[in-house]
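During the no-cost extension, the postdoctoral fellow (Dr. R.K.) reprocessed legacy sequence entries with the updated structure-token encoder. One reprocessed record is reproduced below for audit purposes.
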Amino acid sequence: MRVMRNLGKSFVANTLPADLFRADIDDETVRGLFRRYVRQVEIENHNYCNRTCSFCPNAQLDRRSTTQLMTDELFEKILSALEGIRYDQMFIWARYHEPMAHPSFFDRLAEARRRLPHAQLVVISNGDYLDRAKLELLEASKLDRLWLNLYLPDGKERDPGELDRALRQFQARTGLVCVEDGSKWQYNCEGTTVCATMGVPHYSYATGISTRGGLVTVPELGAYQRRAACFRPLHSVVVDFNGKGMLCCEVRSDAPEHATAVIGDLSRPGYSLFDFYRDLAPARLALVSPGPKTGVCRTCTSVDGGPDRTARRPAVASVLGRIQPLTLVGEWGTKLERAAHRRK
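Re-encoded structure tokens follow.
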């Protein structure tokens, strides 16, 4: 299965249109590329998170002392751009904040549903603020997907007693019933019209802990050097609470070490979501080309298919681009990439 997935991604990489890797394309072209290739737009409603988990940079970077909201003007700019292309893919509230920690989130969720009727609205949350009243607000907005993480105390992530206690508290507060989904650590949450699931994370090198662009130390990755291609700046658009457009979801604008991963600034007058996607072109090219990845990408193991196996090679891309039947491959290639993304 992994070999087939890598072959599919390699094929996609070498049949992608050259315009995706140019920063001088016109507005109409970039809108078309955005609509065709972007599968998720991920934002932060604000900066606040109530937790300081050991595996997260929030343990070192302050996201608790003050709450800074994404401005109404910035949210409107993002929503208006997506509405203008009839966006119908995932619109996600996640990143390094807890969405339900501020009441403005629920109004913005309802507005997003009204103006993006065909988008898949997704919330990733620690569930700490979820209760029956908030669940009803999510239901009223027809949220498509609620992805919950039930965090147990450090060192007790697999303690049966801690799990039982946390589940009982969560179910009493929300009125939901957590039913195992083939694993003791994965649950379907019944009792709501929202598709809600909950996992009990236990992050380690073996289970795929992320270095978050080098902010989290993973001793086993001390000598690691990423070479595998990455498609994230192709299918994912990430905007922080302050309007900073980021390279991907692993990096953050409030970390000085990630200054080079800030690609655009949507708080600038006249600068749009599509300008940001166009400005991602050099990063897209660097990340799908063969060779070692540098900077914040050097230690990233996310979707690592092995050294250069999924890379875009100019000679191959040029030859494939001249074959007439492959002018129709774009939609099929998009489906391949979407399928690979779902299996991650």
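The chain has a mean pLDDT of 91. DSSP finds eleven helices and ten strands in the chain. The remaining legacy entries will be reprocessed before the final report is submitted.
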